[in-house]
Amino acid sequence: MRRAAKKQRAGATLARATVMELSSRESAPVGLVTWRVIDGKGRGVVTTRACTAGTEVERAPVVILPKRDILLRGGEMTVLEEYLLYWSDEPERELAMGGGLLMFYNHSARPNVQFDTGSDGHSMSVTTLRDVASGEELLYDYGVPLWFTPAPDDR
Q1: Which of 5, 26, 46, 147 has CA 20 to 30 A from 141's CA?
Q2: How far apart are alpha carbons 49 and 90 in whole angstroms?
Q3: Per-residue exposure over 61-76, b if at least 16 CB sit within 10 Å of its own CB, e if not
């Protein structure tokens, strides 16, 4: 009985160490972004401190969705579709629903961040394209025909 308990504790310690090692190597940035209401746009993502170009400000998990599972209402976009991200041309993996703040980055034809597929294939990374000031809204180019009229500064 004692041997089994000792073995179980050793296994739990190993599991904790593995999680800690992975999280320190693979950890996403914490506390660099938050959301707020942006006049004329709704919700948006802003920095909590100044960041230099090339800073990963967020890494968030995504749920991969087949395009065929997204339903159109009489040819019009559903609310859900407005928040989905393009993922790949691979059948059954065309779209992604983002976790974290991914769904709240607004569009701009002059973006200050880019989205990249995470190396694990199940996350997305957001990286600054230029230096950004503390409190500045982070914007990316949706890269698709827009279904809305962008704010004047974001055209």
Answers
A1: 26
A2: 37
A3: bbeebeeeeeeeeeee
CA 155 – CA 149 distance, rounded (Å): 9
**Measured between alpha carbons, how far is residue 21 from residues 104, 112, 118, 120, 123 in Å?**
30, 32, 18, 16, 19
Q: Which residue has the tokens 């980055």?
A: 105
pLDDT digits (tens, 9 = 90+) for 88-116: 899 988 889 999 999 999 999 999 999 99
Burial (CB count <10 Å: 0-12, 13-18, 19+), residue 31 = exposed
Mean pLDDT of all residues in the chain? 79
Tokens of 83: 């928040």
Q: Is the pTM of this model over 0.85?
A: no
Max CA distance (Å), the chain: 71
Q: Pairing between strand 106-107 and 33-38?
A: unpaired
How far CA 122 is from CA of 24, 60, 95, 137, 142, in Å, comes to 18, 9, 12, 25, 20
Distances (CA, A) of 73 to 79, 80, 93, 145: 10, 11, 22, 19
How confident is residue 73, by pLDDT bands cut at 50, 70 and 90? low
